[in-house]
Amino acid sequence: MTEMTKNERKCVRYLTQELSTAAKAIFEIELTLDHELKATFDNYKLIWDNYPESLNAYEAQKDLQLESQNILRTQRSKPNVIRRVAYSLAACVVLCLAYGYFSHSDELSYTNQVTTSKGQRQTVYLPDSSLVILNASSEIQYNSDFNIKRQVYVKGEAYFDVTHNKEIPFVVHTEDLNVTVLGTAFNVNTVLDNKSVSLERGKVNVLLKKSQNSLNLLPNEELIYNTKTSDVTKRNFNATKTLAWKDNMLILDNLIFKDALYKINNFYGVSFKITDEEINQKRITGAFKEQDLEAFIHSIEFIADVEIKKVNHNEYLITQNHED
């Protein structure tokens, strides 16, 4: 068994309640400051949440490490979640998918599921050590035999750092598109009628489910597919803007206010509403890096010259600024 890293030992000792009260408090503070430690802990926590309570701490610690390496040999097997492999050849994928239901047949074929709510982002590790960061209001499903067939079904938005394996292609299924990863970094966006696949590096093959046509994309190419007209076009894209959300940055690029509300509400997990058509048509441009809700509200009030009032716990009304 490979020797555990320092971070892994910390996570296991915390989960098996081997830390003193003071040590636990320090560890919890470290979780908020160390992103690498937090990712490792999320990985182990997912295993621990499904672990049989009857097993003792030593057995749990031993199997937690084995599970993280995807070689668990106990009879109590569960969905594999493994730590990242240091020297794996990876590809980065962002999936921004339509909000619809899975087809009945697809839904039945997936045994593992992770979901996020509005305002929430979550890191998940797949059994092949691929990293997934789910954006708000998103979902990923995959089978327990994932290492044999690397296929996932996603809706919402997700960033993938995919471990390269030329023997087993990584396939992302969505409602309208299938994307086969051939060693790459890309973004998929299926919000509203225009669906897009934007290739940052490497190569992807995109299958249009309705027509069964497929095509390859080269770096810096973006495919736009309109589900109403079936039109397909190519254009360049800005990777920094496309991937900003995973770094807790909200970018509004010359959007009219009513179109920006979807992104704002989903990012912050609240509901901003506008009843004034003049405000709806105002254009907003800005980048909001790790701003809390209060700071964001002050920024928007200044940028758009509006007033934002809290209506209830989760709802805000945007009105004209009547100050001189």
Automatic annotation (TrEMBL):
Presence of keyword Transmembrane: yes
This protein's UniProt keywords: Membrane, Transmembrane, Transmembrane helix
Listed Pfam families: FecR, FecR_C
Domain FecR protein: 113-205
Record domain Protein FecR C-terminal: where: 250-317
Superkingdom of origin organism: Bacteria
Protein's name according to its UniProt entry: Ferric-dicitrate binding protein FerR, regulates iron transport through sigma-19
Organism this protein belongs to: Winogradskyella sediminis
